[in-house]
Write a structure and sequence with these properties.
- The protein is mainly beta.
- It has four domains: 119 residues, Sandwich (Immunoglobulin-like); 89 residues, Immunoglobulin-like, CATH 2.60.40.60; 103 residues, Immunoglobulin-like; 107 residues, Cadherins (Immunoglobulin-like, Sandwich), CATH 2.60.40.60.
- It has a four-stranded mixed sheet, with no helix packed on it.
- A hairpin with a 2-residue loop joins β31 and β32.
- The protein is flat.
- The mean pLDDT is 87.
- It holds the Pfam family Cadherin.
- Keywords: Calcium, Membrane, Repeat, Signal, Transmembrane, Transmembrane helix.
- InterPro entries: Cadherin, Cadherin-like_dom, Cadherin-like_sf, Cadherin_CS, EF_hand_dom.
- It is found in: Membrane.
């Protein structure tokens, strides 16, 4: 019988922090190893064949034996040197396990052996200060930049893997500055209003810290002079009402005008632009003269139209490259009666039989129509009627309230009468526009059954003869009762 042993896992791992002397490591962890390799021998314990010894394999591909040692008895891995994670973040090497007797395996020479991989990771500590790649950074911003405008991003580097960097910005003399820095990203932004005429360059000190180390660099912010005044329109809102679906297009709506209080020639060269709803597709502007035209008919009604088109007109000085002035443009649409009322595709109602209608009738359901014309005009105010009704004995069965579409039954109905079980009528909605438009829909009304009939036998008298030999419990004859009600059992 041949007895062999193997390591318990394919790879052993451990971690040790960088910048620790071996004695510091041993004191900190009470002499415990970084990791322990373990092999198991199947031979009976107690003999030399089960006395396992461990050693680090020395080869040309790894110098790990210079930095680690293994306890030959316990398999514990210990440091022999101080490590720098920034130079090397892990070590991989082989550990060999062998017993103390010649191998009895066929063809084997020497003792029984097994080899396993060991990987030791070097843990990062904060041992490197952050640093900037430049000694001086420059940024430029216009004097009219808005608050929170980003100017420049200055990123520091840190060789430590898990460092969290925070930034701070101040002037060399501690005076107030109109800038700030986002502490987590190094983005320098405008904190207060700027004025080129008051100060056009700022020297700032940007400090970065990783919580332990600080580093400072210089930033110079140059303020750029700009055209200070935007063009101003003669009115803040241009508004007009036109008829929807007007086919006479293109049509002039406005001629806008803006002026610029700056005296330089560039500020006088104003270019007009439109931005917003319908621009380009339905509205255009002459960029130099300010003529605003509608170029297509406009629909105000749902589902695709809108009652008001709102967009903005811009006046841009410096020949379209400078400051921008704004005014609102509102184009309101006057409704025309171009939509017919619409009923739902299917409308159903139900009423119990045998109900007395009285003078007002019995409410069955409401047939409502939708008219997409302007609800504030007569174009969408509807009147309802029944265009195709049912009659019994020359009297209409149903009526409809013309103002709200409520349908009433005007007579008592009997479901047991075949032609009174279900009714189909046609309703109509007519708007009050000029000229008016109408729409129609089909309503199906079902008469529900109630238990209003007594059961009855097919015969009033049953005459039956039975043989004298009939045994007790045997059937003599069968009788069945009927009921006109649909739900009777």
């Amino acid at each position: 019988m041949f007895l062999i042993y193997r390591f318990t896992v394919d790879r052993f791992t451990g971690t040790i922090d960088e910048e620790q002397l071996p004695i510091e490591y041993m004191e900190k962890f009470g002499g415990k190893p970084i990791t322990i390799v373990k092999a198991e021998d199947a031979d009976a314990p107690g003999g030399p064949q089960s006395e396992i010894r461990y050693a680090i394999v020395q080869d040309s591909s790894s110098n790990a034996w210079k930095y680690f040692r293994v306890d030959e008895i316990t398999g514990g891995i210990f440091p022999l040197d101080k490590f720098d994670r920034e130079a090397q973040d892990s070590f991989i090497f082989d550990v060999e396990a062998m017993d103390s007797m010649q191998s009895s395996l066929p063809g084997a020479t020497g003792t029984n052996k097994d080899i396993v991989k060991v990987q030791i990771f070097i843990g990062d500590i904060n041992d490197n200060p952050p640093y900037f790649t430049e000694k001086r950074y420059e940024g430029r911003v216009k004097e009219n930049a808005e608050i929170y405008t980003d100017i420049i991003t200055v990123k520091a580097q840190d060789l430590d893997r898990h460092s969290t960097l925070r930034y701070d910005l101040q002037s060399p003399d501690g005076s107030r500055i109109p800038f700030a820095v986002k502490t987590d990203s190094g983005v320098v932004f405008v904190k207060e209003s700027l004025d080129y005429e008051q100060q056009n360059v700022y020297h700032l000190l940007l400090t970065v810290t990783d919580g332990k180390h600080n580093t400072t660099t210089s930033i110079y912010i140059y303020i750029e002079d700009v055209n200070d005044n935007a063009p101003i329109f003669s009115v803040p809102i241009y508004s007009i009402t036109i008829i929807e679906e007007d086919e006479e297009v293109p049509k002039r709506l406005f001629t806008v005008n803006a002026t610029d209080s700056d005296n330089d020639e560039a500020s006088k060269k104003i270019v007009y632009k439109l931005e917003g709803q319908g621009v380009g597709d339905y509205f255009t502007i002459d960029s130099f003269y300010g003529h605003i035209d509608v170029i297509k008919p406009l629909d105000r009604d749902p589902p695709d139209g809108v009652p008001a088109w709102k967009f903005i007109v811009q006046a841009i000085d410096d020949d379209g490259k400078g400051l921008i002035g704004y005014a609102d443009v509102h184009v309101l649409l006057k409704d025309i009666n171009d939509n017919s009322p619409i009923f739902a595709t299917e409308m159903f109602g139900i009423i119990d039989e045998n109900r007395e209608p009285g003078s007002e009738g019995i409410y069955v359901m409401t047939a409502s129509a939708i008219d997409y014309d302007d609800p504030s005009t007569l174009n969408s105010q509807l009147e309802y009627s029944i265009s195709v009704n049912k009659e019994i004995d020359g009297t209409p069965v149903f009526r409809i309230d013309k103002s709200n579409g409520k349908i009433f039954a005007m007579r008592k109905l009997d479901r047991e009468i075949l032609f009174e079980r279900q009714f189909t009528i046609e309703v109509r909605a007519t708007d009050k526009g000029i000229p008016s438009k109408e729409g129609s829909g089909i309503v199906t009304i079902t008469v529900a059954d109630v238990n209003d009939n007594e059961p009855y036998f097919e015969k009033s008298l049953y005459d039956v003869s039975i043989p004298e030999t009939l045994s007790p419990g045997e059937a003599v004859f069968s009788v069945a009762a009927l009921d006109k009600d649909n739900e009777a059992k």
